[in-house]
Amino acid sequence: MERDEILAMPAGRDVDCLVAERVMGWTNIRLGPSVNGAPCPVGEGPDGEHGTVPAYSTDIAAAFGVLVKSQEETGCRSYLERNKAFVWEVDLGTATAAVSEFEPQINFDSKRAAALAICRAALLVANETLEPKRETS
């Protein structure tokens, strides 16, 4: 997955599943029963327990788990900051992502913007380790 694709991904279950698999160590992720009319992804968590994939990209509490895991993986300190332009920026040492509270899907929700910024940065870090570097000529 390309950097621009990751940075353009909207909050939602697609991001949640990618974060669960690539960052948090979930396996066997698939669509489970519908919740509120939408299929809900389920799988096996890193502890081997079967359950629902957390809403990492919209739930700040779940996203903080992603931030901690990414810090452990990179060995870098990270920061999460909201600037005066209502943009949340996350720096995980090897990757940075920013999300504006003005993005249509965010709807001026600062917690949601911060959660998505964390997920995008974590996916960028995971992408660096999962995908081989392309040689340029």
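Next protein, fold it too.
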Amino acid sequence: MKCVSSFFFGLIVTQMVNCEVDVHNFCLKKTKLNNNEVYSTLTNEETSLDSKVGPFFLCIWKTKGVMENDGSINMLKLQDFSEAELNRVRDITDDDKRIIKTKLFECNLLPRDKQEETAIKIKNCHMKTVVGIITP
């Protein structure tokens, strides 16, 4: 299961990078991280909240409108983003959309004191949700 999961993480990351190069590169430059650091984090199901990639994900989510400047989370934007990511891997169904919505809300994504930690919580929830649908 872990190998299949890693394969799909890699596929999702590749699709995200291919389709979102400008945001990805913008956030890499802004946070002074390199692709290898970010990629290795994206291929793990769970990233620790104190990871140095927190600022990168904060940049991504704010640029995408998933996180607001005050650290709050726009769940509709997160759902749209998750649906789009799944749709890049395979055709998304109405059942998939329902499952995504349910699973994202089950993550109980409450903002933390440090916005970087909130950003990592969103990343973990998003990846768990999308990979969970791909590899039930």
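About the second fold: Residues 5 and 101 are 21 Å apart (CA to CA).
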